[in-house]
Design goal:
By secondary structure, the protein is mainly α. It is built from 22 helices and five strands. Helices cover 66% and strands 5% of the residues. Strand 2, helix 3 and strand 3 form a beta-alpha-beta unit.
Amino acid sequence: MRPHELSGNEAPTHDGPIDWGLEGEHSGEILAFRRLVTGRGGFPLLVLQYNDPVYRDKVIPYLNLHAKNPAVFRPDPQSGYADFEKRLPELAAGHDLIQIVGLSEWLTGASRTEKFRGLNYHREYLAEKAPVAIALWMTENYIRDFALQAPDMWAWRTAVIDFAVSSRKPVELELSHLDLGAAKLPERRLRIKEIEDYLAAHPRESISKANLLRELGLIYQGIGQIDDALRALPEAAIIYRNHRFKREHTFILGDIARIYIDKGDVDEALKLLHEVLAVFEQLGDRRSRAVTLGDIARIYVSRGNIDGALKLLKEQFEIFEQLGDRRECALAFGEIARVYASRGDLDEALKLHKGSLAVYEQLGDLDGKANSLWSIGRIESANGDLEGARQHLSAAYDILLKIGRLDGVCTVGLDLGRLLLSLNETERGAEILQPCEDGFRKLDRDDMARAAGDLLAKAGKFPSPTKK
């Protein structure tokens, strides 16, 4: 049970069909942009204000026409400033214009101050290493924050160009995506309704629509609506493919592969993951490659290839450590710990899980915290520390109930219910196991549903199920 994440992605140069339906009021802004980026050397820093992500998506490919080799970059929201500072010069080496989107997602969370500080104090380094036109797409509120939090970098701006659309109801859905690591079930339900209402009112194909469909699919996956997830994610993939956003399309394939892993269809998952890995290796995306290595390692473990899984997981950890990503390092620690536990090295596994738990608590990551508590409880149960196991499994179960992770509730609930039955707490154990059995069937995990039903039957609380 790997905590879900919604990663921001870097999209390659947009070379798909251009939508010419631009607002006439912005003809002057487009001319100003062309004048500022054409034939200029140095480090032109343009701030592009917008309030409609759908309209922004129309403008981006049009502005790309004014550069010989443009690129669009969306920083991973989970990445730190160091990764941004490394990636920007890499892009600048092969492009003369970089339009940066997704800054409202990237400039959030615990590392927000660190990122603003990096932009402010490292401006000379960026100007030296990325001497190309940089266009920052930002909403009005983030422009204000940028000016206050990074005043030195702000002083270097070449211009602020306003592409805000005046005749519209402001829709900020794409900018305020849900934190799947911390959101509770009512928040997830509300977010689903917001996205579905917006998509119903804006059926036209766009990259913003694809972004929202991907988020919708991941939320559905987390609450156990797998069929809905497998409708939203492929639709997003088609849009990314149509617009030649290769990296975004590949991320969707990885999302779908992880659903297949959870459903037990590891052959189809492995086929997709090898395709995903090849693309990320081609693009030189180390972070995404590392995530994919971890997914393949999970399949290796399920097939008994423990040495192969450990090799991949250690490589994954080294990459995240080099990138300075604490959360991903904690995830990698957890996966390595589970492999150690499968080999019987429970002391080392417990040590690694406790280290991951400390990181998740510092980051405020409820999903990751629940994952670590569950793993610690399982090891304690195997070691005979039943009271410690009950404490940690109960804590994990309570968190997962709050955030609405059906897969997590069922997986942890099965272990907790089994433990409570062994402690002769039959009523409480059955109370937890009954919804687990139903939940596993919703998740298409009939094997796990039968396991829950068998435990109930042995406790005399429920007949062993034979239904599908």
